[in-house]
Amino acid sequence: MNSQQKARFDQLYTSHLNHLTLQGKRPATIDAYARAVRRITAFFDCPPDRLSLAQLKTYFVELIASHSWSTNFQRHIWTLPEDQALLFFKLYWPAIF
After folding, report:
1. In angstroms, rounded to a whole number, what is the distance separating the alpha carbons of residues 31 and 44?
2. pTM of this prediction?
3. What is the DSSP string of 11-30?
4. List of domains in the chain
5. Per 3-state DSSP, what percentage of the chain is helix, strand, and coil (rounded to 5)?
6. For the segment 12-26, what is each residue's pLDDT rounded down to a tens digit?
7. Percentage of the chain lying above the pLDDT 90 cut
8. Whole-angstrom Cα distance, residue 48 to residue 25?
9. Residue 44 CA to its chain's centroid (Å)
10. The pLDDT value given to residue 65
């Protein structure tokens, strides 16, 4: 990422952590969500709010290939229409998308 993208990521990341804290999420949950955002950012080398649904699918295909993940979740999220799938990510990472 260039310095402008890094600054954008830092702003989003801080906002994301604050949002999760205000929701009353437990520290382990905040850590897991924050780690997911950092991993996606590192995978694409850009702020996550700039990613398309196709890019997210690419990332999760790679993630599923390298880690065990719930089959029910996989089946559910990728059968949603694009606007609903993006809504899912907006709900999961509200400060990012």
Report:
1. 20
2. 0.66
3. HHHHHHHHHHHHTT--HHHH
4. 3-92 (1.10.150)
5. 75, 0, 25
6. 889 888 988 998 989
7. 16
8. 21
9. 12
10. 75
